[in-house]
Amino acid sequence: MSAPVLVIGEALVDIVGTAAKTTRNGNGKTNATPGGSPANVAVGLARLGVPTELVTRFGTDAYGDQLGAHLFGNGVQLAPGSVDPNFRTSTATATLDAAGVATYQFDITWEPPALSLSRGCPAVHTGSIATVLEPGAAAIREFLKSLADQPVTVTLDPNARPSITPDPVSTWSAVRALAAMSDLVKLSDEDCEFLRPGSTPLDIAEELLTAERTQCVVITRGGKGALGVSRDARVDVTAPAIEVVDTVGAGDSFMSALIAGLETRELLGERRLTGLTSEDLREVVDYAVKAAAITCTRHGADPPTVAEHAARWGA
Questions:
Q1: Dihedral (C-alpha) 128, 134, 136, 142: value to the nearest 10 degrees?
Q2: Domain for residue 315, yes or no?
Q3: Containing structural domain, residue 260
């Protein structure tokens, strides 16, 4: 790989607790950990051996220092301008229910530094709050438009946040526009229920595949596994039985493993998933499901390394 995968989006601190007392300064019975969906994907990719650069923005306050140490410690490159002394680091308050499933409230500002594509970059990934919160969302839309004729694969995980975009109709319209500029789109069953109530995951996948560029849609289904749909194949992968600690970051681990699996099969870059077979699709989705499963067995957004994945599930 001649250049790192480029990930664009928010990096923030997850303040995880079970009480409404959770505050920005960390008072009460809470745990503050690095997070943000795109940042989690970047860390997941780096841990799986994929060189990764993250375009984000956070400050040099205590939370920002925590983020920087986490990202650098996991081998993620930060794009110029990502660390801004004048920026207040964003946070997400995650409240866990009895099953370990998280719901979020956000304190976030999003305005990325300048976006550019390095020669040889195999893939650009974006999604989550960064694609809907202005002014940064507009910058991402324009950047993706500029990639139309570039030899790079674009992946998208909308990761819908109803607390930020409560109108499913307008949000789905925005997702459709971004998906049409992406080769691979990943959604969760919760995304589907919010964005397209009454539609089945397969219906949604087929709707997104009507865009000329989109080649594959993958929909995660929690403990049931995931559905992968391409123009030529459909696979349904079952999740392994595990003891869930919490689900924080599981979808991001899935996304990073999906990209890593495609990179291993040399389907990124100018190929843009051309030649993706049913066998390829099943194997990369299975790899991603198992990466997410590992994350669910431990606290917080803690994606597995290559060695951990191999030790748990085999090479």
A1: 100
A2: no
A3: 5-309
